[in-house]
Design a protein that fits this description.
It contains three helices and six strands. The chain has 138 residues and is α+β, with helices and mostly antiparallel strands. It has one domain.
Length: 138
């Protein structure tokens, strides 16, 4: 989604293909709005947010979430954006343009959850990284 009038970019939106159950008793609703779930829990330190919407800081990721798909939540998301900002809004519900937002692109995303009981074998070894490794990662 982008503030109205922006010329380029894209937004992703989860399709209406159903949401799989979360593994091992987790809350399946977390899978309906992954950025919202992350930014209101474990990724809250990366969030710009208000009561109804949140987004990653622009220097981290172009993803956003809303508490629910409603005019009020979309207005709250627009309040977290600057003119020309583009964010991906992932949700299980369809999103219509808001007063200050335009839908640039709509894509269905298939979300899968591993429901097997076997853990994948660990391949390789873990490496501890230091600031000296940053140039090789950029």
């Amino acid at each position: 989604m982008t503030p109205s009038g922006a010329a380029d970019g894209g937004a992703l939106h989860a399709g209406e293909h159903g949401i799989a159950a979360a593994p091992t008793g987790g809350d399946p609703r977390q899978l309906e709005r992954p950025p919202w779930s992350a930014l209101t829990t474990t990724h809250s330190g990366f969030a710009l947010r208000n009561d109804l919407a949140c987004r990653y800081r622009p220097d981290i990721a172009p993803m956003a979430g809303v508490r629910e798909v409603s005019a009020a939540c979309l207005e709250a998301l627009a309040a977290l954006m600057a003119p020309g900002d583009v964010v991906g809004l992932f949700d299980a519900m369809p999103v219509s343009p808001g007063r200050d937002l335009a839908v640039l692109m709509h894509k269905a995303i298939e979300q899968m959850v591993y429901v097997g009981s076997e853990f994948a074998p660990v391949a390789g070894e873990f490496a501890s990284l230091t600031p000296a490794d940053v140039p090789a990662m950029m």
